[in-house]
Amino acid sequence: MTQFDPGERPSIASLTDQVRRLAIGVPATAVHFLGDTAVFVGAEENAALVNQAGEVSTVAIHGGAILCMASDSKRIVTGGDDGKVVALNAKGETSVLATDAKRRWIDNVALHPDGAVAWSAAKTAFVRSGKGEEKNFDAPSTVGGLAFAPKGLRVAIAHYNGVTLWFPNMAAKPEFLEWAGSHLAVTFSPDNKFLVTAMHEPALHGWRLADNRHMRMSGYPGRVRSMSWSTGGKGLATSGADTVIIWPFTSKDGPMGKEPAMLAPLQARVSMVACHPKQDIMAAGYSDGTVLIIRLEDGAEILVRRNGSAAVSALAWNAKGTLLAFGTEDGDAGMLEF
Length: 338
Description:
Mean pLDDT: 94
Protein name: Anaphase-promoting complex subunit 4-like WD40 domain-containing protein
Pfam families: ANAPC4_WD40 (PF12894), WD40 (PF00400)
Oligomer: single chain
Keywords: Repeat, WD repeat
Domain Anaphase-promoting complex subunit 4-like WD40: 277-334
InterPro entries: Apc4-like_WD40_dom, Quinoprotein_ADH-like_sf, WD40/YVTN_repeat-like_dom_sf, WD40_rpt
Number of strands: 29
Radius of gyration: 19 Å
């Protein structure tokens, strides 16, 4: 058992010899934990479940490509090009939550702590409450991303030229946050005060929800494909550069007028970020296969995986913060216990 105390500078520069190599048999597009079971999701049909002993089992989820996924640590919900929304539990059991009437691709999914699930097909967003009531909303253009607010049943629907905030259980007209361009991934801050999107261009855009004031977060050399909130929502870590970019959200103005922290520079681009659920540390994966653990306070680094392979494409902690799992585009995978 490796102890990583964020209050002390670690004497160990590398934990590579403590990583358990995993034969998952598929390039991972994402990894999520269900309890202490790591679930590596591939681009096509299957997921690989890995228990803490390193035993691997494979389960078929979709009859084709897996296009999106979300997890709440109890289940993983995926959308596929077979038009189905499927839930997977830690036992490897699957259930079909919905099938699109027109068999359209399911492009985005999101989960709410009360059991509600949202998904989208083309321009239409759907929400099914924890009680099974279903509502839908047609966005102005194809849905680029979905997110539930941390409080109340409110859904952010990212699309071309902005984001729509929709209350499925209210008759009120949805609120529209405008900003030119194509908005893809979307996330609420954990305190429900800010909304941030990753754009098709190499930039983020944000709004302070109290007054819809804009927050421009630009300067990236590449598109931001991975975002993760640090514990307590103090910062938003992002990929897209050759350092980890962390935007500050500790004040009422968020990152407005502030420079981001830039940690762990490498001669490779950051491809995945995953903040620890309880401590001020994070994991970062790079385009050259490197995986680092980084202390947010001072940028101290510990090497988890050396470079020299395909990009890191999957990275996640379990909810307790005692396990870290990673996967790469060429099918390599590993797990580290703390």
